[in-house]
Each structure stands twice: as structure tokens, then as C-alpha cells.
Amino acid sequence: MLQVSIIGASGYTGAQLVELVCNHPHMTLARTFVSAQSADSGKPVSVLHGNLAHMTSQILEPISDDLLHTLSQSMDLVFLATPHEASHDWMNTLSQGKAKILDLSGAFRLQNTEVFAKHYGFAHTANDSLAKAVYGLAEWYADDIANASIVAVPGCYPTASLSALKPVVQAGLLDATVRPIINAVSGVSGAGRKASLNTSFYEVSLQAYGVLNHRHTPEIEAYLGTDVIFTPHLGNFKRGILATVTIKTAAGTTAADLQNAFEHAYNGKPFVRLRESFPKIDDVAYTPYVDLFWKLDENSGYAVITSAIDNVMKGAASQAIQCANLIANLPITKGLIGA
Ligand SMILES: NC(=O)C1=CN([C@@H]2O[C@H](COP(=O)(O)OP(=O)(O)OC[C@H]3O[C@@H](n4cnc5c(N)ncnc54)[C@H](OP(=O)(O)O)[C@@H]3O)[C@@H](O)[C@H]2O)C=CC1
Ligand SMILES: CC(=O)N[C@@H](CCC(=O)OP(=O)(O)O)C(=O)O
């Protein structure tokens, strides 16, 4: 059994990981952590997340530098479901032992440290760890992930956006002179569990934010290889992302070409469902799937692709488990689909 610890286990993605690890037939949840000063340290994780009540009696422990070192030596897998700064500051210590680290934050997704500093607001100084980090978009970088000691699990919007766009780029069907336009709506769980006015029940409506400067724009561009216009929106629902992606296809592209591109990209990829109509958020909420559908106007060359995911699952925790399965040489579906 793989010995697993989760740091940030009281948050939305951390608690989702607790559930997935407890249900995983090859993983044992050894320890769960919150920050050193957390008001929740000493509490059972199931007191904060009642859906876990039947599943675990794990207590949330306060993390410390000494413990990071211990975990690096004693665990097989450590999941970081923590703020970017915390993951950044801890990675060098955590990654020095045998443990493989799966980081759900954005701290190790961008190899360009200037772009990182501009979008994350602090300098990247964990150079050795950054050099080792592999981007965890599981359907696209499986071989690299399988051999990685540090996985930077993608952001939720980049997962939805790249899943829609990469097949088109890979097949050479994108007119690269016209930037893809991504409009995406996320449920409030995307903003994390901490209380804030913007995400309180009475305030949340449907609104664009981060316009033309969201940190996921450079992440999408880095792993797509082309610039995009990305506009996130906050919606008044709990879980899920619906991304509507408008592209100009290369001259002469047919509907059959697009169909072939998606079928080729996702043949044998059990978490990607190529749908026969436009997916809705309820189709994927609380699941590890990406649902895709598209329509091409062959006259104008414009196509609209819809991508739907659960931000906490495929956009974070279940994608991290996919990556862990790859590292452990287990079937990628283990603990997520079927037995
Ligand atoms: N929510 C989502 O849909 C997605 C989130 N992510 C990323 O995953 C990470 C976790 O997100 P999410 O679960 O939403 O966040 P939450 O705010 O819900 O949870 C954050 C967790 O980290 C703990 N924490 C906060 N500060 C520290 C610290 N300095 N040291 C140790 N633990 C700390 C919190 O507990 P406490 O403060 O009590 O210590 C809590 O357990 C973030 O980096 C986020 O950007 C990525 C993809 C999707
Ligand atoms: C609705 C909402 O606020 N969503 C978050 C994205 C969550 C995510 O993917 O997180 P990281 O890239 O930070 O890991 C945001 O826009 O900041």
C-alpha cells in the first residue's frame, strides 16, 4: 500500500483528496495537515467535512519544517493542497526524500520565472524543484508524469481549456493568426474555502473577473503553444466549470477533420468523454470526467468547442490521483472509475 499524506486537507481540494485516497485500493491515508497556525489543527477532518464522517477518523495536524522533512523520508506520496506560496516555500524540503510530490497549487506550473512573478506576485526561488517539476495534464504528458518526482497539477481552467484546444493544435487545424477565445464559468468552490465577501452566498451572481490578466492565461499559453484570450467568470453554483472556446480553423478544415482530431487525441483515454451534444455542468459535477462537444461552421471556418469539468475533481484532486496512478504504475482509472 502507498503511504499518503495530504497537506491542506481541510480545504476543498484537500478534503476531496481525503475522500479519493480513502477509497483508493492501493493507498493508505497516513496523515493530514493544515498550517502551523490553523484554527482547525487538532480537529478531525470529518468534523469540517461531514460527508467524510463514515470514512476516516484522521485528525488535522499542524505542519512544521521538521514534519516536512519526516514526510519526505517516510511517505510514498505527498499531496499539497495549499496556497501557491506555501507549496513554493516547502517544495525543496519536501522533495528531498523518497516521497513523490503532487502539488495542486500553481507554484510549479510555469517554467518562466518572470512570467510567474508577474502573475503570482512573488519571486520564484525554488529553482531546483522547478527544474524537476512536470506538468500534470494527465491525458497529454503521461510518460513524463510517470517518471516525475514533482508533479504540478494543472489549474482548473487550464484543464478545461487545454483539453478542448490541444487536439485541434496537435492536428494542425488551428488558424494560428486568430487567437482562441475562451469564456469560462466556474462555481464558487474554485475560490477555496476561506471566507470572503466576493464568494459569499448573497454576493455571488454571474460576473467576469481577472479580465485580460488572469494567471491561467500564461499557463494555457505555455502548454498550448499559442496565445489566447481567456475570460473567467464566477457563477452562483458550487462545483464545475463550463468553458466555451471559439476558434478559427485552418483553411479547408471540415467537420470530419475536427471529429478525427478529437477521436485521435482521446482514443483510449477513459476520463475524456466525446459527447454528442453540448455538455452541461451537472453532467460532470463531482466526477473525474472532461466532457467535450464542438460544432464547426465550414463556411466561415469558426468552431465552438464546449468543455465541462468539475473544478475540484478533474480540475484538481482526481487529476492528481490520475498522476499518482501513473507514478505508481497503476491503471490510470484506479480509485476513480470502477473497482
Ligand atoms: N478549488 C479549486 O477548484 C482548485 C484549487 N486549486 C489550488 O489548490 C490549492 C488548494 O485550493 P483549495 O482547496 O481551493 O483551497 P482552500 O482555501 O479551500 O484550502 C487551503 C488549505 O490549505 C491550508 N493552508 C492555508 N495556508 C496554509 C499554509 N501556509 N500552510 C499550510 N496549509 C495552509 C488551509 O488550512 P488552514 O488555513 O486552516 O491552515 C486549507 O486546508 C490552491 O493552491 C489552489 O489554487 C487548483 C485547482 C482547482
Ligand atoms: C472561481 C475561482 O476563483 N477560481 C480560481 C481558480 C482555481 C484554480 O484552478 O486554482 P489555481 O490555479 O490557483 O491552483 C481563480 O480564478 O483564482
Automatic annotation (TrEMBL):
GO cellular component: cytoplasm
EC number(s) stated in the UniProt entry for this protein: 1.2.1.38
GO MF term (any one): NAD binding
Pathway the protein takes part in: Amino-acid biosynthesis; L-arginine biosynthesis; N(2)-acetyl-L-ornithine from L-glutamate: step 3/4
Matching InterPro entries: AGPR, AGPR_AS, AGPR_dimerisation_dom, AGPR_type-1, NAD(P)-bd_dom_sf, Semialdehyde_DH_NAD-bd
Keyword line: Amino-acid biosynthesis, Arginine biosynthesis, Cytoplasm, NADP, Oxidoreductase
Enzyme active site: C156
Sequence similarity: Belongs to the NAGSA dehydrogenase family. Type 1 subfamily.
Protein name, UniProt field: N-acetyl-gamma-glutamyl-phosphate reductase
